[in-house]
């Protein structure tokens, strides 16, 4: 039998064998994608396939070259065959795809999802609708694991509505989260006027935000003064100051129909008017529930 014929027959046989290895390797890779416990057979390793490819390529190169360049033909064929064999048996196992919504864990069948396949979270609080026991929470409100607003003092009024967020445990509170009317500390005015100080406006911003988030509650804004000056003057001044507070709260989004302004003047002191400290305590604005 001629050299060329022998070489081609050997090469053909090896090609068939290599093709089988590569096909088997491809199938194993596909199975490995479904189960990471599957291992490839030794003969499917790219190195083994490359070695087989070099034999195939060298045989073909030798068989098809003339007698004068058999060595170079075999060498060229071996290099090319090794490269092709290694590629045929390369590991094509697909990279694992990360879960799109890992924070949600296992999502029950039938749950409504968005375009990315994540469970719907209509109020954007980080708790999906199918687990959210308090849907419709306002944007930015801190919630617990079941999607309900945090209530730090456990009084039944969530923090984002609570005008008295540190009420002692067990204390009965009103809809504002307070046991009684609450003094709006540091809500002060310019001397002998109803003009709010800049610090007072900053404090009222927080009061207004909580009132806006508590839309079913009506409030009474009550002004008080010390005893200096006439009783009628003090009553008028306290009324103007209470109205100044309600006007500012209305500008911050609190409905005017939810508020009333009452000036009590010097009628309801909470400290002695005989000292500077006492008079400072008596000059105050209180917030109470208006039934």
Characterization of the model:
- The chain is α+β, with helices and mostly antiparallel strands and 291 residues long.
- It folds into three domains: 3-88, no CATH class; 98-150, no CATH class; 182-289, 2-Layer Sandwich (60s Ribosomal Protein L30, Chain: A).
- It contains six helices and four strands; from the N terminus they run αααβαβαβαβ.
- It has helices spanning 3-34, 46-64, 70-88, 198-212, 231-251, 276-282, and strands at 182-183, 219-224, 259-263, 284-289.
- It is rod-shaped, with a radius of gyration of 42 Å.
Q: What can be said about this structure in brief?
A:
39% of the residues lie in helices and 7% in strands.
Topology:
Elements: H1 3-34, H2 46-64, H3 70-88, E1 182-183, H4 198-212, E2 219-224, H5 231-251, E3 259-263, H6 276-282, E4 284-289
Parallel strand pairs: 2-3
Antiparallel strand pairs: 1-4, 2-4
CATH topology of the largest domain: 60s Ribosomal Protein L30, Chain: A
State the strand order across the main sheet: 1-4-2-3
Poorly predicted ranges (pLDDT <50, ≥5 residues)?
A: 32-38
CATH top level assignment of the largest domain: Alpha Beta
Radius of gyration from the CA trace?
42 Å
Structural class: alpha+beta
CATH-defined superfamily of the largest domain: OmpA-like domain
Strand residue percentage: 5-15%
Number of H/I helices? 6
């Amino acid at each position: 039998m001629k050299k060329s014929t022998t070489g081609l027959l050997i090469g053909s046989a090896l090609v068939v064998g290599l093709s089988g290895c590569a096909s088997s390797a491809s199938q194993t890779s596909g199975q490995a994608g479904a189960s990471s416990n599957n291992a490839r057979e030794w003969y499917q390793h790219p190195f083994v396939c490359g070695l087989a490819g070099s034999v195939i390529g060298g045989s073909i190169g030798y068989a098809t070259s003339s007698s004068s360049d058999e060595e170079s033909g075999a060498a060229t064929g071996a290099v090319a065959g090794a490269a092709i064999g290694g590629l045929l048996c390369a590991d094509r196992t697909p990279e694992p795809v990360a879960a799109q919504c890992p924070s949600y864990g296992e999502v029950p069948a039938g749950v409504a999802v968005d375009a990315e396949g994540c469970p719907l979270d209509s109020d954007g609080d980080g708790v999906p609708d199918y687990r959210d026991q308090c849907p419709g929470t306002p944007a930015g409100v801190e919630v617990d694991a079941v999607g309900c607003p945090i209530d730090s003092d456990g009084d039944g009024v969530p923090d984002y509505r609570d005008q008295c967020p540190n009420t002692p445990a067990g204390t009965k509170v009103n809809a504002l989260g307070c046991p009684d009317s609450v003094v709006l500390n540091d809500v002060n005015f310019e001397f002998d006027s109803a003009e709010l100080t800049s610090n007072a406006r900053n404090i009222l911003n927080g009061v207004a935000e909580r009132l806006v988030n508590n839309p079913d509650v009506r409030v009474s804004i009550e002004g008080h003064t010390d005893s200096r000056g006439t009783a009628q003057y003090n009553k008028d001044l306290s009324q103007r100051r209470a109205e100044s507070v309600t006007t500012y709260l209305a500008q911050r989004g609190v409905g005017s129909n939810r508020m009333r302004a009452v000036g009590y003047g010097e009628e309801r002191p909470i400290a002695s008017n005989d000292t500077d400290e006492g008079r400072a305590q008596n000059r105050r604005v209180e917030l109470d529930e208006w039934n």
